Every structure is written in C-alpha cells, then in structure tokens.
Amino acid sequence: MLDGYGAVLSLRAAGTSLVLDTAGRVPRVLHWGADPGPLDDAAAEALRETGGPAVLNNSPDVPRTFSLLPSEFEGWAGTPAQEGHAAGTATTPRPRTEAVRHRSDGEHGGTIEIDLADEITGLRTTMTIALDRFGVLSVDATLVRDASLAGDGATIPYTLDALRVMLPVPERAVDILDFTGKWCRERAPQRGRLFYGSHVRRARRGKPGHDAPFLVVAGTEDLGFGRGEAWATHLAWSGDGEYLVERLTEGAGAFSAVLGAGEGLRPGEIALADGDRYVAPTALFVWSDSGLDGLADRLHRRLRARPTHPQSPRPLTLNSWEAVYFDHDLARLTALVERAARVGAERFVLDDGWFHGRREDNAGLGDWFVDRTVWPDGLSPLVDLVRSHGMQFGIWFEPEMVNLDSDLAREHPDWVLGPRQELGATARAQYVLDLTRPDAYAHVLEQISAVVDEYAVDYIKWDHNRDLSEAVSGYVGVDRPAVHEQTLALYRMLDTLRARHPHLEIETCSGGGGRVDLGILERTDRVWASDCNDPVERLQIERWTRMLLPPELIGSHLGAERSHTTSRRTDLSFRLIVALTAHAGIEWDLQEADEDELDRIARWAGVYRELRGLIHSGRIVNADLADEATAFTGIVAQDGSRAVYTWARLVTSAPGQSGRVRFPGLDPDTRYSVRVRNEFGQASRHQAADPAWITAALQPEGVTLPGSVLAVAGVPLPTLNPQQAMLFDLVRLA
Ligand code: DGJ
After folding, report:
1. Residues contacting residue 45 through CB under 8 Å, at least 6 positions apart
2. 132, 126 Cβ separation under 8 angstroms
3. Which domain holds residue 562?
4. How many domains does the chain have?
5. Which residues of 692-724 are buried (b: 16+ CB within 10 A; e: fewer)?
6. Three-class DSSP category at 354
7. Is 350 in the pocket of ligand 1 (CB under 6 A)?
C-alpha cells in the first residue's frame, strides 16, 4: 500500500478508469469513464487543474467542489452524502482526510482506501473504492463513532439518517433508465430525460421489491443495447434502499449530475454511541461505451469470477408448484417424478405444502417439520424415488415468515415482527418473523438444518412473500425499526446454512423476483425471476434481469399451455425456447402432457444439456431493433467459437419484413455454420415462404455464411406470427 495522500490517483481496468484528486479536504472525482491511459505527472496535473468549475454569480466565493462525501460545507446544495444528528446537533458533517492508501494493479484495477475524521459528528469514515479487472467499481463505507473526536457532543449517540455513495456524471448523460414492476412483471424498464431536480427511487418494503430500481443507468441519448455511453449503479443489499440521479443548475463540481445509492434507513434505526460501527452495503458502479450490453458484460464477468459462483452444470429442474400446488399426495407426486425423469429432469423441487399444518396458504409458516397427515412416512418415499432416478432433491422454505395459525406463533406470539400494541394487516395471511431475536433465529435455523440433514437436501427454494411493513422489533423492550438488523440476520442465516451444508444450493425467491440483488446473491445460487411462466412476459422479464445477472443465475421454467398467472395460451415451442436460455426448468403438471409433448420436452432437455455450457458462460448480446414487437438476443461463447440467438416476436407489427438484421457479437472476419434448432417444434410464420437462406439453415447440416454478412450487413429473418420464437445455433468455422 502506498500512501497516496495529496496525489492524483487512478484506477484502470478493461478500458475504464476512475481518477481521484486526494489533495483537498475530501477526495474528489476528476474522471470516471473511458480510460485515458496511464497518467504521467503532466496529465495528472492537467486533470487536477481542470477539475474545478467556474465561480458563478450569486454563489459561494470559491469554486464548488463535489467530493466523495459531498456536503453543504463544500457548497453542494443537492442531496448530501451523509445525513444525521446527535439529538438535533452535529447536523453539518465536515469530514477531513486523514490517510489515503492506494494499491494499483496496473491495467487490472486496484484499490483506494480513504480514512476520514469529522470533529463535528464525531465519526471516523473509511471508504474503500475498488476497481476489479472487469471494470466494475465497488464502494464500501464504514462509519465508526469516536467520541474523542468531537469532545462533549459525542456522548450523545449519532443518529444516522442516510449514507449515500454518489459519483458525478458528465453533461452528455441526458437520459435515465431504471426499472419498476409488480408481481409477475418484474424489471419493467422505464426511460426518461434527466431533468433538473432529483430522480429518487426508494425501496421501503424491507426488500428491493418487485418494483426494484435494480440498475439505475444515466446514459447518452443514443443509448441502446449495443450502442451509447452509460454510467450505472446497483446496491448490493436486500433491505430498504435508495437510488438517486440528481442534477442541479450549478452542476456537481466540474460535472453535470450525480448518480448514487445507499441503504434506506428508518428514523432512529442506526444510532451510533461511542465505538459503534455502521457498515454500509456495497454500492457498485459501472461504465460502458458499448451500450447496455457492455454494462451487463462487465457485471457478468465480475459475478462469474467469484469463488462462490456455481461451477457445476446447472441441473434441469422440475418444480412442483404449478403442477400440484398444495395437493401433496404421494401417488400424484410419484407420477410427477416419473414424468420428470422421463423428460430428463435432473433436480426435483418440492415446493410449498409439505410442512406441518400447511394445507393451504393461511397456516403453517414457522413450523418447519414434515406434516404427518399428508406424509405419514415422512418425505423419504418421495426423496428416495427422486434419487433413484439420479435427480437431486430440493425443497421450499419461507424462513422469515410466520402464520398466526402455527404452533410457533401460538407458543411465541411475541416473535412476530411488528408494533407490540397491535399488528397491522396480514399479507397472504402471514406476518414476518422477528429474526433479530436470537431465540427466533436459532429456532428457524435449527429446524431448516434438521430437514436438510435428514433428507440430504441439495437445494432450497427460499421464498419471501410479503413486504415488511411497520417492521419494528420489540425485543429490547421498546419497538425499534428492524429492517437493517433483519436483513443482516437473513444474511447470517444463509451464511450459516451454507457453512454447515457446503453442498447446499439456495434459490432466492420473493413471490417470484421480488428480491434480486447482489447482496443476497453473495449467498444464493439462483433467482426465481418471476412467478410468471408466460413466455411473452418472461422473455421481457429475463431480458432485463440479464442486465445484472448472467443466465446461469436466472431460473426459467416451462409452464402449462395456458399460463397460470396470465391465462394466455402459447405454443410449446415458444415456451421451450424462452425457458432454454437460462437455468432451465419445468413448472407444469406433466401428467397433462401427451406423448408427443413429452418427446419434444425430452428433446429440448437434450438441447439444454448440449448448449448449457455455452449459455452459462457466454456473452449476452441484444440487437437494437426498430420494431419493438420483436427481440433478437444472443449468447456468444467467450472464445467466439459458438453462439445461440433467439429471434422472437411478441405481437404483430406494421412491417412485413424484418429487413437485414445484424447478429451482434460475431466476428466479421470468419465464417459460421448457421442452423435453426427445431427439434422441439417449428415457429409458426406470417409469410408464404422463408427467406431462402433460412430454408438452408433449417437443414441438419445448416448453411455457411461469412461473419461480415451476419454481423455487419445483416440478414433477413422470417416474419413470425405473434408469440413465436426461432433458435439459431452458430458454429465458427476454422
Ligand atoms: C411464491 C413463489 O414465487 C412460488 O413460486 C411458490 O413457491 C409459492 N410462493 C409457494 O407458496
């Protein structure tokens, strides 16, 4: 570690860089974006010299600074980085740098650590800014109360109201893209102008929510999947959160706007007495000049490089939920397991309904032991059958929840999270269990662990079906906000289970995709992206979920012909293609499938096994198409040797022809064998005949085309009927 105090420091990796000036009271960003290359002394000095804005009329008499902890002291009149007080005092933070440590890995990133001390708030802050080798920045901040800094004032605990990480973005970032949604329609994009003022997105549900901002992007006007410049942030946290894009007329230092994120804190939730510490969730920042796919590529590479990233082939999964719901009948489930085996499933997951008192969705949560009325011999008969077919066994829990109609709630009514005076409304007939209580926490942990041990469970589907509202804990005798501690308890429980059961995989589910964030993904292996298996909806949900997560982390299941959540009917071939390009599975009562359908599903399972190595390691590319009724998404092997593309049409549209559509991500200087994979069905077309080259690509031997034609000129694609898709399989030729 070099002491870098006072210097211009840069972190560089994969074509991006962050440059900080550490000479001022608090370091400030001189540049975040494209890598200007190694900075010699003259260039570093020039960046510093040009790092200050004009002194405007009717403004502070010194140039405004926008530092890493922007405050009013610096003339920043926007949202402050830190808000809080000590009983109404210490409201104007003035941190000052005490030490800077810089570790550079050359062109492969590095770390800058900054220690700051604040005599007004009596807080010591450490910020750690790391750029990984893929160009993703992470910012971690820790506050420690140190009474000796502030004299008398620091004997009163400091109430932290907010700690935000904010980075500046340049004037060409004129658009904002982020996400919203609802149950069964997660990650719906919304895009608009970056106007003056604050675009603030809050998650106040005790989880990111179905409407989570997910990834907040500031971008250039031309931003698309494969074009434009973008700056984005994601908060790796599963509790309350806040995202911000803000633009003041005076700018932000030498920049124009800011992009930030931080935990959402409830009043009084964090009170720091002398020696107490607050660790903020990691905020990630990523820049790309190759569009949204460029952002996703950096994030995917980062995730795939984690030691905990799933390495084994992602097993084709059959989940019992939409097949049997609460009808846990051994004969019925036996038939389902047999059919799962027949089509080639590799993991069988027993969903909700197996535990004590759980005959419908209004009872049982909290009693995590097998219901002997429906399972007189325990789960062994089923588990043994599953294993006899060589499948893994998975099971559903909703550990953070409780029904009042449960042994647990009857014995421990005070374990329910909520005001002691009177509980608010139930949601899905349930409340939240107060896991900040050591007794409640231990009870649930041991019950789960016992089931995992008894049945050698391979996989848990970890559900969470309601918002945390009025989430106060009375454990310490008074009701105190508890989302922060509840989230940490969840993390602790997941970490403990994984340590105890090293082979256990866990899926994060929250009524579908209501808790998809990189905090929980540090401790889970898959997300259930949505309760909606309707491929029309799912295609869009997953396309945007992939902005953050690579396909191997996204569960996608083949549902019934008539979707259980939208009532829409779709063809099997379309459903199969949409479920293929993820961690694939089945969520359908296969007893309803006829022999032909079972054969097609089995062939699809074979294609999944054949292609999953590519799907689960390749680079995601999306074509920017004028016709929004269509989508063209590819997954290209990192070495370019193979690729799959999905050409899909959701609804009809005016154009009769696709025109020449380019295959993004291919090498123009080589040739490809292109084949349409139609083993599991044909897409129905809205045309008299395919473009001639498609006719050739439909043959088993495929057609050979130059990369320049596919990637640069483009090729006409068939005009599909609505709710149809076609899968292209490309192999690079020597
Ligand atoms: C909500 C989940 O998203 C579903 O997949 C299913 O597990 C149900 N809960 C079970 O209650």
Report:
1. 8
2. no
3. 317-614
4. 3
5. eebebbbeeebbebbbebbbeeebebbbbebbb
6. coil
7. no
Task: Report whether residue 529 contacts ligand 1, using a CB cutoff of 6 Å.
Answer: no
Question: Is residue 309 included in any domain, yes or no?
Answer: no
Chain segment 512-542, per-residue pLDDT in tens: 999 999 999 999 999 999 999 999 999 999 9
- The pTM (predicted TM-score) of the whole model is 0.98
Closest C-alpha to 206, from 538, 630, 457, 515: 515
The residue nearest atom 10 of ligand 1, judged by CA position, is 352
Q: Do 594 and 682 have their domain in common?
A: no
Each residue of 185-244: pLDDT tens digit?
999 999 999 999 999 999 999 999 999 999 999 999 999 999 999 999 999 999 999 999
Picking from 46, 20, 32, the residue whose alpha carbon sits closest to that of residue 257 is: 32
Residue 105 designated active-site = no
Q: Work out the number of other CB atoms within 10 angstroms of the CB of residue 602.
A: 15
Q: Are residues 597 and 625 in the same domain?
A: no
Q: Which atom of ligand 1 is nearest to the CA of 531?
A: 3
The long-range contacts involving 2-5, CB below 8 angstroms and separated by at least 24 positions, are 2/101, 2/102, 2/103, 3/99, 3/100, 3/101, 3/102, 4/100, 4/101, 4/102, 4/112, 5/97, 5/99, 5/100
User: 321 C-alpha vs ligand 1 centroid, how far in Å?
Assistant: 7
Which tokens sit at 385? Answer: 């059958």
Q: Are residues 562 and 644 in the same domain?
A: no
CA 532 to centroid of ligand 1, rounded, Å: 11
Give the largest CA-CA distance in the chain: 85
Residue bearing tokens 């770390």? 111
* The pair of three-digit structure tokens given for residue 456, joined into one six-digit string: 């050698």
